[in-house]
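Fold these two proteins, one after the other.
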Amino acid sequence: MFYSLVNKVIRFNLKKYMEELMHSSHEPFVAQRAVMSALLQQAKNTEFGKAYGFDTIHDFNTFSKRIPLATYGDLKGSIERMRSVSYTHLTLPTNREV
């Protein structure tokens, strides 16, 4: 009985995942835009998000023009500062301690 219920739950979740995956494979640009929008929305109030105006970026062209390519050396100061206060992410608002 227990395994039957677990099996149904797993099958339901797997079916939902497969439907999303199939939709994404047919509409890759729509899926990528949705992921980008979700990440920008999540990070808009971070230091990095505020500095580059994540709240006003709504397409890839704006993103690519506004966000510069950066090396570790370019971000090292910010990374070290974040490490000193135990933040785990520079661009996402987790603020979890390491």
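Now the second one:
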Amino acid sequence: MDLVQHVATQLEIDEVKAERAIGAILMALRSSVDRATFDRVTQALPHSEHLMGRALMGGGRTGELMGFVGPAGLSAALAAAGFDTADLPRLGRIVLGFSRPRRRCRASARGMRL
């Protein structure tokens, strides 16, 4: 399952809304971390540029606000786009957790991930 499907399933939202939310988080992250760190994130999420574009093209306030407020306004931008503020910490954990390298053990030889 890819990140968009995972977010959509976990938060019980459609995939378009999930793409916009992930894109908004990535845009805020890009403006708050150094380039090397963000490059590692984009390597972990190969379609990150597409997702950030979806946030901008959303037709709603998410893209409009993100260009001006950065990470400080992420919560307000996502809330304005229709996200329940109670789901925002969970959304952040899902996206950031998905972008972290997976830890592997002996089971990885059999194709299993921890």
